[in-house]
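User: Sequence in, structure out. Go.
Assistant: Echoing your sequence, followed by the structure tokens.
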Amino acid sequence: MIHQYVAAVDQGTASSRCILFDHAARIVSLSQKEHHHIFPRPGWVEHDPLELWNNVSTVVRRALDDAQLKNSDVVALGITNQRETTVLWDRETGEPVHNAINWQDTRTDHLVHELGGEQGQDRFRDRCGLPLATYFSGPKICWLLDNLPGLRRRAESGDVLFGTIESWLIWKLTGRHVTDPTNASRTMLMNLATLEWDDLLLDAMGVPRAILPEICSSAEVYGEASGTLEGVPVAAALGDQSAALVGQTCFERGEAKCTYGTGSFLLFNTGDAPVPSAHGLLSTVAYKLGARPAAYAPRRIDCQHRRTRTVVS
């Protein structure tokens, strides 16, 4: 019998992990490495994208070595990630133009209030399912384009690329610029109904379409890896909490999961249609597997381990 394995990379808020699973979904190896947090000012939180990439490469190699496996033993790699964290990099050199702006960062607070205008926090909720908040990627992109000299011109000419962390890692592994709907739905730039980048949202936030990745499904082969995982198909990407929903096999409408990490996060599978919430929940994509329709979920967040309430809309 030929033993084959799947590698899962979890690039999280505090560390990067690689777990190798056998055909029975048993863990055969695990490696983890923490990364630095950068705090330029109060309320600003950044990560070094190259450190994240190097740490991912390190934990993958360690996991393979610990299990005494070769690249050819791994049939697929999946990636999950800290979602709204935002990276911009040079298309030609691959060098980040700035540190990654972490999802916890609040520097866009003033910009978010400007974008809301007279309509307020819910100005774009009917299109993207999200309230205007510093949490999401769109305002972070806007801040970078407005505050780094010459960056907007470079972005408009297509010389700069944007990605959340899974997009950055897939590009480093395969050279392909892609994302999946679970991550794209957290940017405030994707139309929740069409699963495509939305021109009205792009125009409102001043984000050039040229910098955006292609939106693919959460489970398909994006390309073959080079480097440490040379030849291994990169075949899945889901944002952290959506990955947990899939990992807990919550594939039926009405099933839910709550996980505890940096905060407490509840997702509830509402099936193939988003359900607007009257109780402050966020509408988001739960997953999209291959060519099948996307599944949706309202989501509750209790950050910093406040008491968790199980609220379902």
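User: And one key feature?
Assistant: The first strand starts at residue 5 and ends at 11.
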